[in-house]
Amino acid sequence: MPMAPVTSVWTSSPAYARHKAWKTRGDVVGSKQKIPTRLSVPSAAADAPVVPVDPCEFVREAVERATGSDYFVISETVVKTLASTRGLDPIDLLPEFVREAQKLAIPPTSKFHVGAAALGSTGAVYLGVNVELPGLPLNASIHAEQFAVVTAMRHGETKLIAVATTAAPCGHCRQFMNELRDASKMRIIIPDDSRSNGMSIRSHLVMPLCDLLPHSFGPLDLTHDNSLPLLLEKRNNGLRVVMDQTEKILPDVETQIQLALREANVSYAPYSESPAGLVLVTKSGDVFPGRAVESAAYNPTMSPLHVALCAAVAMGNLGNKNGGGWGEIEKCILVEIANAPVQYCDTVKLILKTIAPHGEVTVVSASRE
Fold first, then answer.
1. Which of 29, 115, 209, 352 sits CB 3.0–4.6 Å from 98 for a disulfide?
2. Smallest Cα–Cα separation from 86: which of 23, 47, 38, 31?
3. 111 Cβ partners below 8 Å, 6+ apart?
4. Tens of pLDDT along 259-283?
5. Of 145, 179, 263, 336, which is the active-site residue?
6. 172-189 burial by CB neighbour count: b if 16+ within 10 A, else e?
7. pLDDT for 332 beyond 60
């Protein structure tokens, strides 16, 4: 979850000056707007209207469609069309997407709405919001940057180019994003309030993650193997379900077990070797998948339940601004390796007992093939 805006002490540092020289962008906010244009646009084209209507209306429509029916994803086609219409680079649109997405945050404890927008190498944009779970410890929360990353993961994105946030990402999220290949080069876009001009123009800093996370600790510090797949990269954990063949299983439950197994097989657990996956099933029969996503620093790790809750918000509009709405969850099927170093069963049961007390948890054991 982003922390407070950059302080004056930090903004006076040499690193900050280097970032400002590298790139500082301005974007439109508020109801009275100026339309930015490229300096390289010929004068005749520059005199033409950039967009026939309020340009932010298109941004709102794109986010509303993404969060309403497109699972928190703004397609490459929509991003490209909007950027072309506005005469901007897709990266310039990310802060505007963030401001719209953060309205859908679920922060019943902090009341602090956070949004994130991640631009993938495919050209699509993946949205995220912070999600807090009432009645549970603060570390049970989901940060907006994590939400955006696992949204990209769920849709098969293999690389993120840039991530924009409501404010500078906290250390937790910087560490979580460090699991990506070439994470140090990924651009992070944060508001620069020191250069903002009232409510009409707001500037943003664009800087590489390595400058926000110097002297970082990452995957290679634990695995020492650059060939291993990192977060968002294809992997197969080679698990199979251990079942009593005499036990009769209903067809729909069998399908749900297989979906949970599939999540376990693509889960990212290189440090504990404890892959796990699950599905949440609602009373209406909707199914939301989740998988373990580990961090080299351990604490930013996301449990398969937290990843599934992101899917429930993005795919099923579960959750609400007061942190409730989880009561629709009727079943949870968890697949994990029995006696693995990390076990998610008890944590999943504890969380669901609080947010979905009528939800039934079934644990299915898996083993390596």
1. 115
2. 38
3. none
4. 999 999 999 999 999 999 999 999 9
5. 145
6. bbbbbbbbbbebeebbbb
7. yes
Structure tokens at 143: 């940060």
Q: What is the pTM of this model?
A: 0.84
Residues 47/291, Cβ–Cβ less than 8 Å: no
Domains of the chain from N-terminus onward? 8-220 (3.40.140.10), 239-368 (3.40.140.10)
- Return the pLDDT at 201: 60
* 364: enclosing H helix or E strand: strand 360-368
Residue 214: partners with Cβ closer than 8 Å, 6 or more residues away: none
Pick from 266, 250, 248, 232: which is nearest to 335 by CA? Answer: 266
Residue whose C-alpha is closest to residue 341's, from 272, 278, 267, 292 = 272
Whether the per-residue pLDDT at 165 is higher than 50: the answer is: yes
58: nearest Cα among 30, 22, 96, 27 = 96
Helices 90-101 & 55-68, crossing angle to 10 degrees?
A: 60
Active site residue 263: no
Q: What 8-state DSSP symbol labels residue 48?
A: S
Q: Where are the alpha helices (DSSP H) in 191-269?
A: 209-212, 219-223, 251-265
Rounded CA separation 264/34 (Å): 49
Neighbours of 161 (CB within 10 A): 17
Spatial separation of the C-alpha atoms in residues 287 and 358, rounded to whole Å: 16
What angle is formed at CA 126 by the lines to CA 123 and CA 130, rounded to 5 degrees? 160
Show contacts of 311-315: CB within 8 Å, 24+ apart. 311/154, 311/280, 312/280, 312/288, 313/72, 313/106, 313/129, 313/131, 313/147, 314/67, 314/71, 314/72, 314/127, 314/147, 314/151, 314/154, 315/71, 315/286, 315/288
User: CA angle, corner 347, sides to 314 and 284, nearest 5?
Assistant: 40
Look-up: residue for tokens 């001009």? 197
Task: Report d(CA 123, CA 111) in Å as an integer.
Answer: 32
